[in-house]
Design goal:
By secondary structure, the chain is of the alpha+beta class. The protein has one domain: Aspartate Aminotransferase, domain 1 (Alpha-Beta Complex). Helix content is 38%, strand content 24%. The chain is built from 3 helices and 5 strands. Strands 1-2-3-4-5 form a 5-stranded antiparallel sheet. It starts with a helix and ends with a helix.
Length: 119
């Protein structure tokens, strides 16, 4: 199954949220790859970047290295997780595009930095 098909099968509210979030993820930088991993959509840019996890009442946008996103910390929910932190959206109206883009850009820049240090 590919990401588009996965999203098409969600309920309407989750589908709309996932379509918006996916669009933002894919348009912020060239080279983001997507695939289904662990049963949900994952996005990769120089390693794991983020994922979409549909929940009962919305969608959780989890950032693989979320705990390392210093500028974005006030907006992220860590739920006592050691590595991942996320943005949770219950409706399209709850999506603050400015915050979403800021967190995504910080996550992308972090992945660039980590990748360049490994070389």
């Amino acid at each position: 199954m590919d990401v588009e098909l996965y999203i098409e099968q969600l309920d309407p509210e989750q589908r709309e949220l996932c379509l918006l979030l996916r669009s933002e993820i894919l348009t912020l930088t060239l080279g983001v790859e997507e695939k289904i991993a662990y049963g949900i959509p994952f996005f990769y840019y120089n390693g794991p970047l983020c994922y979409l996890a549909p929940k009962k009442m919305g969608v959780d946008l989890g950032f693989y290295r979320g705990q390392q996103l210093n500028d974005s910390k006030p907006f992220l929910n860590s739920e006592d997780r050691k590595q991942v932190a996320s943005l949770y959206y219950s409706t399209l109206q709850n999506v603050d595009l400015e915050v979403l883009r800021m967190v995504l850009i910080e996550a992308i820049e972090l992945n660039k930095t980590i990748r360049s240090k490994k070389r």
